[in-house]
UniProtKB/TrEMBL annotation:
Name recorded for this polypeptide: Oligopeptide ABC superfamily ATP binding cassette transporter, permease protein
Keyword GTP-binding belongs to the record: no
Domain ABC transmembrane type-1: 106-295
Gene3D superfamilies found in the cross-reference section: MetI-like
Segments passing through the bilayer: 42-63, 108-133, 145-165, 171-188, 219-240, 274-295
Family: Belongs to the binding-protein-dependent transport system permease family.
PROSITE patterns the record matches: ABC_TM1 (PS50928)
CDD domains per record: TM_PBP2
UniProt cross-references to Pfam families, sorted A to Z: BPD_transp_1, OppC_N
Classification via InterPro entries: BP-dependent_transpt_permease, MetI-like, MetI-like_sf, OppC_N
Protein's cellular compartments: Cell membrane
GO BP terms, alphabetized: transmembrane transport
Protein topology in the membrane: Multi-pass membrane protein
Length: 311
């Protein structure tokens, strides 16, 4: 029987569907593991629902979130006395539909959460890799900078910066991102310290590969899972920060709809019209819990030390 040589194997045609099949198999494995985790499934469904609602808000919302109707001010939810199905969750002090405002508010929460995390992640990953890879004076300087940021609460940093700067969506995203990078820097630094001692990194350095290429090809791919987990969990804290700043009047500004603004407007009516603050508060709580559930599951899934005992 004639055997196939290595040269012949090298020229054998490659099935173009192999990559597609592997991708589908990985996706099936992902869904299977997700379905086995109760918290992961709940978190994924909440996040998926939030994304769909935010993306199709104009089609889903029954009313314009800024439409004022003085004839229907402070209408209660439909199940309460005086409530109607035309305004399922009631109206606010200006007659604006609460459900529509919550739906549109999800857009701001997602935009601020995702973009702020991207800014924080970019800064933190760069500083973390540089600090862990070079060590010495560079590491000491960056870590002292991290300690300085950690010594002051993030919300206080944001309040100071937003008081000086003009509040608004772009400013809010940049300020939250610039003040939230330290978590990435510390985590990525610790992993880079370990990775730089691996044999393949030493071999690349010996062969004359530049530091930038080593960090790009050998360090970053090995810290990607940590970046994903940190980013997912950071979105939850960012949404809380945005809501807090908007509640204080330093974040999103009217007429843009934000859950924090709704809470601020409803705090004066808690005793008489509880729904004004209750439903935005529930929206924040459910969203944050969903993101945390998904982040915790991703951490267990991507952590090599995980035993795969997701519940």
């Amino acid at each position: 029987m004639k055997s196939t040589s290595h040269a012949e194997l090298a020229v054998l045609p490659i099935d173009k569907n192999d990559r597609s099949i592997k991708s589908k198999n990985k996706f099936k494995i992902f869904l299977t593991k997700l379905s086995r985790s109760k918290t992961g499934s709940v978190g994924f469904l909440i996040v998926l629902t939030l994304c769909i609602v935010a993306l199709f808000a104009p089609a889903i919302a029954p009313y314009d979130p800024g439409k004022i109707d003085t004839t229907k001010m402070l209408a209660p939810p439909f199940w309460s006395d005086g409530g109607t199905m035309s305004h399922i969750l009631g109206t606010d002090n200006l007659g604006r539909d609460i459900l529509s405002r919550i739906i549109y508010g999800s857009r701001i929460s997602l935009v601020v959460g995702i973009l702020s995390v991207l800014v924080a992640g970019l800064i933190g990953v760069v500083f973390g890799v540089i600090s862990g890879y070079y060590g010495g004076i560079v590491d000491n300087f960056i870590m002292r900078l991290v300690d300085a940021f950690l010594s002051v609460p993030t919300i206080l940093f944001c309040i100071v910066f937003l008081t000086v700067l003009d509040p608004g969506l772009p400013t809010l995203i940049i300020v939250i991102g610039v003040t939230s990078w330290v978590l990435y820097a510390r985590m990525i630094r610790s992993e880079t310290l370990s990775l730089r001692e691996r044999e393949y990194v030493k071999a690349a350095r010996t062969m004359g590969v530049s530091d930038i290429q080593i960090m790009k090809r050998h360090i970053l791919p090995n810290v990607t899972s940590s970046i994903i987990v940190i980013s997912t969990l950071s979105v939850a804290s960012t949404i809380i920060t945005e809501s807090s700043l908007s509640f204080l009047g330093l974040g999103i500004q009217p007429p843009t709809v934000s859950w924090g603004i709704m809470l601020s407007e409803g705090k004066e009516y808690v005793a008489t019209s509880w729904w004004l603050a209750t439903f935005p508060g529930l929206a924040i709580t459910i969203t944050v819990l969903g993101i945390i559930f998904l982040g915790e599951w991703l951490r267990d899934l991507l952590d090599p030390r995980s035993q795969g005992t997701n519940s």
